[in-house]
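Worked problem 6 (solution included).
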Amino acid sequence: MKHIVIGTAGHIDHGKSALVRALTGTDPDRLKEEKARGITIDLGFASYEQGDVTVAFVDVPGHERFVKNMLAGATGIDGVLFVVAADESVMPQTREHLDICRMLEVPVGVIALTKCDLVDPEVLELVRLEVRELVAGTFLQDVPMVAVSARTREGLETLHAALDELPQRAKPRVHDTPARLPIDRVFSIKGFGTVVTGTLVAGTIMVGEDLVVMPQGRVVKVRGLQVHGRPVERATVGQRTAINLQGIAVDEIVRGDTLTAAAALSVSRRLDVVIELVESARPLPHGARVRFHVGTTEVLGRVALVEVEDRHAALDAAAANGRTISPGGRAYARVRLERSIPTVRGDRFVLRAYSPPMTIGGGAVLDPVPPPGATRSEATRARFATLDPARHLTARVPHAADLAALRCLLQYAAAEGLLPAALTSRVGLTLSSAATVTRALVDGHEALHVGDRVVARSVTDALGRALVELVQRHHETDPLSEGMPREEVRTRLFRHAPQAVFDEVVTALHTAGRVTGTERLALASHRPALSEEEGDAVRRIEAASEQCGLAALTESGLAEVTRQPPRIVARAVLWLLRDKRLARVGELLVPGRELIRLEESVAAVRRAANKPVFVDVGWFKERYGLTRKHAIPLLEYLDRERVTRRVGDKREIL
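Solution. The predicted structure is:
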């Protein structure tokens, strides 16, 4: 069965609720106060079935004081039933509701001229002309216009037929996106607990699954689902849905919150947007305080203009220097909100003046989590233009706007890259287009998959160059070094990067033959080298060590004997240790050849005896002419090399 959600729109007392009641048999006014006062205050809901189509209505209030409720109801609708009373014609909220529908890019609609029984044909024709003039150039320009009376039921069948055609003209719903339901009602039912309702604008929800209430981040379980009053196991995009939630109290959730799959939305107090002002608005200056409506949320914020594209700029000095948007103008801006809200790139929003509250414009979210920093630089303006889908309308490349946005956001994500969830929330891609677009960038060598994220190849290439430069500087500072400790490289260059990105860069440099080593990273072309002074120290130290034999010297002793500076001795010793011409035994620096001869000599004693041999320190000192200072470290060395084994005060030769 197909589902379509239609919102009503129009001025107060133009008969929207009466018309919905006549069409569906259900009174959408559910509050006692509404029935007592005879006006719609909050959202009402009704539906009917026609063949294989379910038509759901969201009836909205027409009074100017309740426009924010109207905006909550307009979220997620497929089309609009635009209502104008024949006895009053076009009124202020008629125009404002039309502006709201335009800013939200409602795709289709039907115009109903209500109360036609109260006017004569001449007046009705005048109203037709006024309404056609009002909607000229909008999405309602060529839609059916039906004269109807809820009281006499005149024209109802014609209106039904026009509404039944809307599913064929409505924009197809996209199913392969994470679940998302902006909440427009919250209440409690005895025995069931917390229930929320809304239009499922994306994805699918199933009984038993876990979802998240945003922006709080509270995890809840779907205990039950109803669509148009009927229990179901599964609700799909485009359906009016009531959800019984487990894990949250009714006073912990409000209209304006969003029920969604985990990580499906970005939450931020800053949004980069493109704004369009309506022709009837006053000029909007930089820094203006506004009411920002997105989904079912209303939040206050301030507008920081980035760049104004204004056809009135030649007549307006403030518009010309980008400090004001004129009526009908368009601009890039950063909106700083007074609290965090969840959004997705591409979300449509409406702006209303702070005081008096009236609709002044709207637009689309370009980046729900923009980078911090100045907003009026050339780089920032270029970034906005890249993220604006309107700039790519004439491109012949498939997914041109998505590719441009992903390239741009990958650059700003730097080494952190973008996780799969960010491809839908921040870049605004469907699951299928995310796979297609990322594959295009990977196949074109513009991006690569690193672990669980996508990273721009230009970013990893730049990090690779920085790593090579860092290691090169290390070699220049310390020519004897075998390389820079791997962890030090990661800390200095990749502190904010995932481990997988660091490993990917190192692996790529290894594969390219530019870097060697694991625990220490060195340039493949690097060969440790001694200065002339260090080379002279090596020769002197080696000669002194050979002369001392097993009665070896310490590093400070070698400096004293060779009369070389300690710094030079230390570097020369390091060279000899790496070359295994010296070995460190405790604090002693023993020639490597002397240790080999010592091991062979001790082992020969055991072979000559042809039986277990036990020796003590005295024997060792006397045999090799050593003092205790040298004998003990050398015996401990033999123990470590498993030439001897300590047994009490003696050692067994193995």
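Discussion: The chain has five domains: 2-169, 180-260, 266-387, 388-529, 533-654.
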